[in-house]
Amino acid sequence: MIGRIIFWTIFFLIIGGVIIHFQWNSSVLLKWIGNLPGDFILKMRDKIIYFPISSALLLSSSISLILSLIFKKEE
Question: In degrees rounded to 5, what are phi and psi of residue 35?
Fold first, then answer.
């Protein structure tokens, strides 16, 4: 079990490192975050406040699904 956790942690760190190294334009890859229906933006005089509720729910459920598939209990 601990081996899987270490493996996936290193895997995601390597992927993140490759993305940072090649300076991929993350605004193109993640442009939808904060722009879904249900994401609120409050614009005041000189301040902008974001409430990305829909984006947070989508990311959270996606991560939960991926992790449950990876760490599925073997009975």
Answer: -120, 10
* Average pLDDT along the chain, 75 residues, taken 10 residues at a time: 80 79 64 76 86 84 83 65
The helix/strand/coil state of 63 is helix
Q: Which helix (H) or strand (E) holds 3?
A: helix 2-22
**What predicted TM-score, i.e. pTM, was given to this entire model?**
0.54
Q: Tell me the β-bridge partners of 51.
A: 40
Task: Name the β-bridge partners of 50.
Answer: 41
DSSP state of 52: E
CB 36 within 8 A of CB 59: no
